[in-house]
Amino acid sequence: MAILVFRRLLLSAFVILSVAMLIFVATEVLPGDALEVSLTSDELAMMTSAELDQKRHELGLDRPAPVRFLEWVTKAAHGDFGTTIISHAPVWDVIGYPLRNSTLLAVATVMIAFPLALLLGMTAAYYKGRWPDVVASAGAIIGYSIPEFASGNVLVLCFAIWLPIFPSVILAFTKAPPEVLLKVAFLPVVTIVFASIAHMVRLVRAGFIEALNSDYVERARLNGVGEMRLLFRHALPAAIIPALSSMALYVAGLLHGVIVVEKVFSYPGLGIVLVDAVEKREVAIVQAIGLLATILVIGMNLLADLAIVALDPRARTVRQ
Predict the structure, then answer these.
(1) Is 299's pLDDT higher than 70?
(2) Which of 22, 173, 194, 317 has the most crowded Cβ, counting Cβ within 10 A?
(3) Alpha helices, DSSP H, located in 197-312
(4) What's the mean per-residue pLDDT of the chain?
(5) pLDDT of the residue at 33
(6) 60 touches 82 (CB < 8 A)
(7) Per-residue pLDDT at 318
(8) What DSSP character marks residue 281?
(9) Which helix (H) or strand (E) element contains residue 56?
(10) 230, 201, 198: which is closest to 214 by C-alpha?
(11) Cα(120)–Cα(143) distance, integer angstroms
């Protein structure tokens, strides 16, 4: 077990470093730079090439890419993502509260999505071929087929315009207390949940059907084990193993859905900051958000692998 964890940690560190290099290269090939975006067309027309080169030198934009990459990786390893190019504000000061707000939205989503996916998957499997299975499977396919921006706009139309129950646009400040953000985050959370749990529902359903048809569940049923104990004590642990990796990727992939939904509802999270940073070519912010997303993906995959090994003894010998 210790050898497995050590190997996975080494592999995770290598993957994070490789993706960090890709993030740096991707931001390098963006057209223009922060200086060109920050200046108006009149200012650019009035400045000479020498003045532009001098300004780029002052902002550190003329240094070789490998030097800037090594400096960025070294500082990022110590939790320092540098400063913005134009305003010289620390990146953590820019993304700190939006990161908290996006995390709050993601946690609220996960707390609803996981129990709901388990409930729908278990119900569909238990009533296989009957109307609960048809309704749950059809709802999952419909939710998977509709992108977040479309379902978000439909929810706004239904529950903010036709039935003015929830606000269509979130007016809370970036530094608003968590309880204030949660009060107005109902529609964003429902949008993300509705659009993203379909795959988990189908995996849980398939795993539950396989578990219910297994020999050990049949023996437990013949021994007189109650139906609820049979479902939650015997079938659920085996059924959830195939879905663990999907759940880990779901949590890691929430950043994509959160960014879209935050833009639709004007939620003060990382989505707004990322879009604004790309428009202004604030490379340090884009790199920081990209690296944090990478660490989240790798970390959740690592946790999923360790959870599978802990729940399924057969995986220990296979993965060693």
Answers:
(1) yes
(2) 194
(3) 198-212, 215-222, 227-229, 236-265, 270-280, 283-311
(4) 81
(5) 62
(6) no
(7) 46
(8) T
(9) helix 49-59
(10) 230
(11) 13
* pLDDT at position 169: 80
Q: Residue ranges of the alpha helices (H) in 127-177?
A: 131-145, 148-156
pTM above 0.85, yes or no: no
pLDDT at 316: 56
Q: How far is CA 159 from the centre of its chain?
A: 26
User: Fold for domain 91-319?
Assistant: MetI-like fold (1.10.3720)
pLDDT value at residue 95? 92
Going by C-beta distance under 8 Å and a sequence separation of 6 or more, which residues neighbour residue 218?
A: none
Q: Which residues on neighbouring strands pair with residue 154, listed in sequence order? A: none
Euclidean distance between CA atoms 85 and 98, whole angstroms:
19
Side chain identity at 204, as an amino acid letter?
A: V
Does 315 have pLDDT greater than 50? yes
Residue 214 has pLDDT above 50, yes or no: yes
Q: Which two tokens stand for residue 240?
A: 């959830």
Note the residue count of the chain.
320
Residue 117 zone, left/alpha/beta (φ > 0; ψ -120 to 50; rest) = alpha
Q: Are 258 and 270 in contact (CB under 8 A)?
A: yes
Tell me which DSSP letter residue 86 carries: T
How do the domains of the chain map onto residue ranges? 2-77, 91-319
What letters, b where the CB count within 10 A reaches 16 and e where it falls short, cover 35-53? bebbbeeeeeeeeeeeeee
Of all residues in the chain, what percent carry a pLDDT higher than 70?
Answer: 88
Check: CB of residue 98 under 8 Å from CB of residue 268.
Answer: yes
Which pLDDT score, from 0 to 100, does residue 32 have?
62
Mean pLDDT computed over 145-159? 84
